[in-house]
Amino acid sequence: MLTDLAQAQTSALVLTFQKNLNHSNFDSSFLKLRLQQLQDAALTNTSILLQLPVFPLIQTNTQTCQMIIALHALGMQTSRENDEWPCPKNFPGTSVNQILLNHHRASYLKEKLNKHNITSIEQFLNVTNTELLTWNNFHHNIKKIPRGQCPC
Fold first, then answer.
1. Which H, E and C letters describe the chain, residue by residue?
2. How far is CA 125 from CA 94, 121, 130, in A?
3. For the chain, which residues make up each domain, given as ranges?
4. Which pTM does this prediction carry?
5. What is the pLDDT of residues 50-93, one digit of tens each?
6. 139 within 8 A of 109, measured Cβ to Cβ
7. What are the CA-CA distances from residue 6 to residues 61, 65, 75, 113, 128 (Å)?
8. What is the pLDDT of residue 150?
């Protein structure tokens, strides 16, 4: 019974989301702005409508975020024809989301990584991408000097 209810809620969220996404006034809607805010918060180089992102903890419980999570829970993707929206960030490398997706505290970690503008796995590696950087060398890739003890 509870699974049926959960599936009905997920389907209703996705249906509402699709309806609002395809609405004739989408370009002047709050949803358009909110989607871009979520895209920026996800800090990923892939559209949040095409691939399940990891959202920061502060965004996770919002209605629009739950709609996007429901969309991907049903195995769906969507995009707007003739309109690349929301606009993903353009940065090189492999998104840290690929590692975080299966972690039980993904949203918390994503929030901390976003704070330091860490977007890709390669930021943790040396120039040849063969070894992890030491704590003392890591600051070159995030453009901040970490303070305090090494979290080793």
1. CHHHHHHHHHHHHHHHHHHHHCCCCHHHCHHHHHHHHHHHHHCCCCCCCCCCCCCCHHHHCCHHHHHHHHHHHCCCCCCECCECCCCCCCCCCCECHHHHCCCCCHHHHHHHHHHCCCCEHHHHECCCCCCECCCCCCHHHHCCCCCCCCCC
2. 12, 7, 7
3. 2-73
4. 0.79
5. 999 999 988 988 999 999 999 998 888 887 777 778 888 888 88
6. no
7. 16, 16, 15, 31, 46
8. 63
Residue position matching structure tokens 């003890």: 149
For 97, counting Cβ atoms within 10 Å of its Cβ (0-12 exposed, 13-18 middle, 19+ buried), the class is buried
d(CA 6, CA 20): 21
* pLDDT for res 134: 77
| pLDDT value of position 115 | 84
pLDDT tens, position by position, 8-51: 888 888 888 888 888 889 888 999 999 999 999 998 888 999 99
Contacts of 27 (CB under 8 A, 6+ apart): 83
Angle between helices 2-21 and 63-73 (to 10 degrees): 110
Residue 118 CA from chain centroid, whole number: 13
